[in-house]
Amino acid sequence: xxxxxxxxxxxxxxxxxxxxxxxxxxxxxxxxxxxxxxxxxxxxxxxxxxxxxxxxxxxxxxxxxxxxxxxxxxxxxxxxxxxxxxxxxxxxxxxxxxxxxxxxxxxxxxxxxxxxxxxxxxxxxxxxxxxxxxxxxxxxx
Length: 141
Fold this sequence. Notes:
Blueprint: E1 4-9, E2 15-20, E3 23-31, E4 38-41, H1 42-50, H2 56-61, E5 65-68, E6 73-76, E7 78-86, E8 89-99, E9 109-111, H3 113-116, E10 120-124, E11 129-134
Parallel strand pairs: 3-9, 4-8
Antiparallel strand pairs: 1-11, 2-3, 2-7, 4-9, 5-6, 7-8, 10-11
């Protein structure tokens, strides 16, 4: 894969494609550089085949992770998502939290640093543009 660049408006949430064992969902996302991990609606992860992460056994043994930003703190099951696509850019094996918090936000995914670290980012708020650069093909981790 050659280097890719994608320019998006900062003020409009992009759509991403989340891949799982049981299909692909196209979901509206928000970029949050303060969040250490991505967060995806729990219902979408279950529909995509990640349901094993949400059983009572997982909750009892405490497997999960925590995201802390200036605005919120969340603890939830940690899921390694097979692939997240943003336009022609791809990140593989992305750690994400499965959460139920986005009902009023108008998005289904928060793109945190576990996704964003796969790219070089440039924010130009004056021109309302965020630019993603990906130099080479992502590798599976």
